[in-house]
Specification:
The protein is built from 4 helices and no strands. It is mainly α and about 80 residues long. The two termini are about 20 Å apart.
């Protein structure tokens, strides 16, 4: 996989997570609290860093989407 191709996929993943958070009018601090409710410990800064990079695993993406109540995404 070329670097630019990898960057495109990371950008898409980042966009999906950011959009779903924004659709629910949540701040990263809110997301951190919701993650804590499902047993995931993050700090707002850590969350921001992961999302900004777009380089996170599917497990992290599913944890965030589940925590914020996202049950369906459009690609």
């Amino acid at each position: 996989m070329s670097v630019s191709n990898k960057d495109e996929w990371r950008s898409k993943a980042k966009g999906i997570v950011k959009a779903e958070i924004a659709l629910r009018n949540l701040e990263y601090a809110d997301v951190v609290e919701k993650l804590k409710e499902i047993g995931i410990e993050e700090t707002p800064q850590n969350l921001s860093n992961k999302i900004s990079r777009g380089a996170f695993g599917a497990d992290f993406m599913l944890q965030v989407l589940t925590a914020i109540g996202c049950h369906q995404i459009n690609l």
